[in-house]
Amino acid sequence: MEPEGASTSSPDCIQILRIFTNQFPEAKITSFLVLEEAPPLLLIVIGQDNGSIYCIQGDIARERIKRFKLQVDNHLDKSQSSITGLGFRVDGQVLQLFAVTPNTVNLFNMHTQTPTRQTLDQIGSSVTSVGMTDRSEFITGLPEAIYFYEVDGRGPCWAFEGEKKFLGWFRGYLLCVLADQRTGKNTFNVYDLKNWLIAHSIVVKEVSQMLCKWGNIILILEDKSTLCIGEKDMESKLDMLFKNLYTVAINFVQSQQSDAAATAEVLRKYGDHLYSKQDFDEAMSQNIHTIGHLEPSYVIQKFLDAQRIHNLTNYLEKLHEKGLASKDHTTLLLNCYTKLKDVEKLNEFIKSEDGVGEQKFDVETVIGVCRAANYHEHAISVAKKAGRHEWYLKILLEDLGRYEEALQYISSLELSQAGGDSERVWQNYYRA
């Protein structure tokens, strides 16, 4: 595989550097890591089987370098002091180095003039299965579990049984090559820890190296072949999950920090699925979460056809709470209340202290619906609270026949009191 725009010619060798010297004698290399601090400056750290970390720092091309050693363990048994894993943690100007032996997990503060060491854990790893997350957490793999470390010590762990041959991190996923002692086979798994699922699993041959390059995961196998694994796009992933894992699809799209419209589309599909199963209550619960992104008529039409008036009422109430209801929505909601004869809800909607002031509904629409349904007291309450004097008098005279009360109301109005509506009342009803 070749990245776009890459050259097909061989790279030029600009320097050959002798690693070991008389001052730093040769030892078996057990781990190796390179950090580009600030081009062209590099920091090369080499873990050795004697418990030391050999460091080469500087401009390698010009051989302007310094060499130094960090000591972790100095155990008589080399198998217990070998450096089995390394990991850099960079936080601004602060550089730290994780180092693992079979018995310990250690952290070196590299930003000080003389690097200092602290032991984070007395549980190490005898195999070179380590990695770094995108949150600068250090990962180690033991047969019983995978452990995460931060600068203050061990964090969470995930119990995956089996020998961890390789660990890695790719776009928020944990990568692991597992050896199954019972079958003798190796399995490459991609774990989505946020959603508690295995996103991908495949049986592989013996792996000699695992890389994450050019937007792909590359496994280099011992037979010199390579296996390239790419991540599916969001739409393809969701199509797979929509078959029977809708709740996982919702959690997944939210964990990917997708925009609200994308999340609403997943919720809509889940709502449609629940609706087809006649789970109307839960379907409406999902549809309510789409308010502001999904056209309300899509939901309203479905529940009108199904004659699910209670669910429809709930949806319309939420539309009004969010200030997204039209006049037609208000009319429909009030018709639902009157059809259900739910006077308590009707009172709560139109007689609340803040209902008109916050413009939660269109006043004339509410008055018209209440008059048509013979809820005249509710209509007159809305008219009075909104200062619609003409409507108030129409209801008193035309619907309730309370003429004396109407006369008293007219006489209580002053021409300059409420602007146009009050003036029209005087013109229409007052006779000198």
From TrEMBL:
Q: Which residue positions does the secretion signal occupy? A: none
| Keywords (A to Z) from UniProt | Membrane, Metal-binding, Zinc, Zinc-finger
Against InterPro entries, the record matches this protein to: ARM-type_fold, CHCR_PEP5_VPS11, Clathrin_H-chain/VPS_repeat, Quino_amine_DH_bsu, TPR-like_helical_dom_sf
Source species = Anisodus acutangulus
PROSITE patterns, per the entry: CHCR
Name of the molecule in the record: Vacuolar protein sorting-associated protein 11 homolog
Q: Name one GO cellular component term.
A: endosome
Q: Which GO terms describe its biological process?
A: endosome organization; intracellular protein transport; organelle fusion; vacuole organization; vesicle docking involved in exocytosis
Subcellular location(s) of the protein: Endomembrane system
User: Which sections of the protein are CHCR repeats?
Assistant: 287-432
- Please give the PANTHER family that the UniProt record associates with this protein: VACUOLAR PROTEIN SORTING-ASSOCIATED PROTEIN, VACUOLAR PROTEIN SORTING-ASSOCIATED PROTEIN 11 HOMOLOG
**What Gene Ontology terms describe what this protein does at the molecular function level?**
protein-macromolecule adaptor activity; zinc ion binding
Q: Which domain of life is it from?
A: Eukaryota
| Main location, first listed in the record | membrane
Which Pfam families does this one have? TPR_PEP5_VPS11, VPS11_N
Membrane topology designation? Peripheral membrane protein
